[in-house]
Amino acid sequence: MIVSKQAKYRDRLPQLHGGLFLTDGGLETTLIFHEGWNLACFAAFVLMDGDDGRKTLRAYFDRYARIATDSGAGFVLESPTWRADPDWGAKIGYDLDALAQVNRAAIDLMHEIRDRHETAVSPIVVSGAIGPRGDGYIPGTVMGPGEAAAYHAYQIREFRDAGADLVSAFTMTNSSEAEGVAFAAKAERMPCVISFTVETDGRLPSGETLAEAIGRVDAATDEGPVYYMINCAHPTHFDHVLDRDGAWLARLRGIRANSSRCSHAELDNAPELDIGDPQELGAQYADLARRFPHINVLGGCCGTDHRHVQCISTACRRAA
């Protein structure tokens, strides 16, 4: 039986007050291509069910936490639960009770890692990671906000009760599902972050611009999310979009980019992992940090690992 800890930063998220906060890199691609794990449906949460899997996850997150604390940066620990929702869980044999157990166990592991690494100058925030109900690259059948809220509320409640500080919905392909996550989080009194993915033209897979998507979610939820992020796209895919004026830019606080310049379709069909150039990626982040100093939650996505995050940390600290 898991005895859940209390949330530490739920009512005062430290990343909202400035300073560099790092996150990890591409968990699933690291586990598959570097660690040799076979992840059905790209689901990392299955590693929570075995001693070897938990050992792998501990070592993975320990490495990133040390990068943050060694540099005096904060850290946002994202639980390995991007696929731990009812539909994806059912595809690999997890019923709702088993999913509840694994979601809570994942937050408990994040607390364990925080207890081991947090310092007075490096706060570590525990986030429950949520993924899209469908494919992370293709919108498919778009849920209405009400249906999306009902669907995602299950996982959000587990994170709340397990003591997560916030929930973060990654790789959102459309504003409607993002609205639902924000509605559900507000109902459960949980801070939430919405992270959209974009195609090579800077638009969401739904065809919406970032400005449109953020504007729609904010208008529908009375600015429900505490901030927004971009993930699973290379900086060259969205850099030009950020040059446009708009109040929505102030709502953007985080980036978790891919190392590869490939499109989503190309990544889906790639036989090998494209890790790109960690030094180049760090320089691209530093340029973004100089232009948009309020964007302070930085990490990686597909194809990135600790080398990329180390380069991002070094380059952005120099830029600051």
Tell me briefly what this model is.
It contains eleven helices and eight strands. The protein has helices at 27-34, 51-71, 86-91, 96-117, 145-162, 175-187, 210-221, 235-238, 264-268, 278-291, 306-319, and strands at 21-22, 74-78, 124-130, 166-172, 192-196, 227-231, 252-257, 297-300.
Radius of gyration: 18 Å
Annotation field: number of helices: 11
CATH superfamily: Homocysteine-binding-like domain
| Beta strands, count | 8
Question: Which residue ranges are poorly predicted, with pLDDT under 50 across at least 5 consecutive positions?
Answer: none
Classify the helix fraction into a percent range. 40-55%
* First-residue to last-residue Cα separation: 45 Å
**Number of domains in the coordinates?**
1
CATH topological fold name = TIM Barrel
Give a description of the structure:
The protein has 320 residues and is α/β, with parallel strands linked by helices. It has one domain (17-313): Alpha-Beta Barrel (TIM Barrel). Helix content is 43%, strand content 13%. The chain has helices at 27-34, 51-71, 86-91, 96-117, 145-162, 175-187, 210-221, 235-238, 264-268, 278-291, 306-319, and strands at 21-22, 74-78, 124-130, 166-172, 192-196, 227-231, 252-257, 297-300. The protein has an eight-stranded parallel beta barrel, surrounded by five helices. Strand 4, helix 6 and strand 5 form a beta-alpha-beta unit. The longest helix has 22 residues, at 96-117. The mean pLDDT is 96.
